[in-house]
Amino acid sequence: MAKQKVPTSPGKKSVEATALSALISAAAIGLQNERVRKAMRDLSGQLVTGVRDWQARRADPKLPARDRARVVNRFSQAGLASRARKLRAVVSGLRETPLLPPEARAAFGDFEKALDLIDLRLQVAAALPFGKRVRVLREIDDALDDLERILAEVGRV
Description:
By secondary structure, this protein is an all-alpha fold. The protein has helices at 15-31, 34-58, 71-75, 77-95, 102-126, 130-154. It has one domain.
């Protein structure tokens, strides 16, 4: 079996980045279904309350400094892993909601596959030299931004 060469020049995407883009696109298309959007809008009140409670807990000055949100935690490798883990928890919770139509569950399956690929890329990035690791981490950050944006847009009225 021939090895596939992964492009390294800045203008080309790697095989993993292309697969990740395809999964993100599939999840976005699946969540554009009107039945899915209506179901998510119906659940949005519960979700907003949960997010506000979480934000209030995170802003508590009694928390140790390491537990408060910091800018560096968003962009470091550990921060990206944390973002992926939190996004996976949200998607898993939504996927198990009985009120969602089957199309939404399928779209959330694509989300979970994309998150699996992100986890794999984070593991690979840990072994790379600094310059290459930074490039991969930027791609992962962009992919997480896309997933978060898609998820945020689903429940909009």
